[in-house]
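Lab meeting notes turned into a lecture example. A postdoc, R.K., suggested we walk through two folding results consecutively so the class can see how the record format repeats. The first protein's sequence and structure tokens come next.
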Amino acid sequence: MNEVLSMFLVTVENKVAAYWGFSNYVLRNKLFFNSTGLMAKLNGVAELLNIHDPELYNKLKFLDCSNMLFCQRWILLAFKRESKTFDMAVKMFTTINSLKPTHYIQLQGLGKCELLSLDMFLVIAILVSSRATLLSFTDQTDVYQWTGKLKLSDMSAICHARQMYEEWAKR
């Protein structure tokens, strides 16, 4: 949580305002700070990937990665560790949290809907942009090693995610 709090402390000079901003962030996202909420979001990411790129989804399934647990840190920390610079991390965090989740996806076999948010589309954008690399992997270890080395150097992934998010809204 201190990594998320640091975003507020850097962008808001007043510590009281930073505290209240952080508190509101936690309240708004509290469902995703427990295993049930996080798994629901990861299941939603898996369904989105299956719709957007079935071949890549099936490859991850073959590698026993279709549960998307390798993306857990990305979502919990809003891609902070994947950003090359702290300034980039702040931009990513601000952009991700600027849109209120409003669209739903029907989860196959579960008979329920999952609320879609921009960070879920950002995961898809990153996976799709790394499609060739991911399709070349031979086991689960490759996926986790790639995840640990991933660094986002610009806002192209977030732009692609925003575009996918807006296209989904038109459905």
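The second example is placed directly after the first for contrast:
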Amino acid sequence: SFNNTPFQPIWLNESRLLAALKGTTWSTYYEFMRAELMAENNQIINMLTEGNDGLAAGVHVYYQNANSSCKTTVNNTCTLEDPTPHMAALMLVRQEHWYYFGSTGWLDKDFHWSPLYDKLSQCGKPQETAQRNAMIWTREYDNCNVMLNCSDATPCKGQKSGPCCIGTINVKSDHI
């Protein structure tokens, strides 16, 4: 992290790490990345700094059931939460060589194509860095606008913790 928060038992000064690895090819990986956690612990700030420094990254979101009482079994499939907030969170911090993985687990059967991926492919390149107004983040792309609103401190339905984050990705009408 670029920020050593008080009472943090272990801290790696990421500025020193990036300096030591300068001239090498490597990437970082965010396991269990979720929009509400990024907003709650300011991970967005860290990811923005990494992206601005040219670091490549992969981010993996484990989708949760929309209804926390639903249990997936061989004979029962649960409806998953809306992936839009998590994808919007990635779009806020995304730089060249940043990749998104959304699944319910590690196996091939746990990964499924989302029509939202096709929508994101229309966005083009970012036109600015992410902008913040309290707990609302926005970012403008060539062909879309992205927003992540985490101002509601109450967890969303099916969400275990954190603020309820609502994500929107609007493709500009002249690009549809």
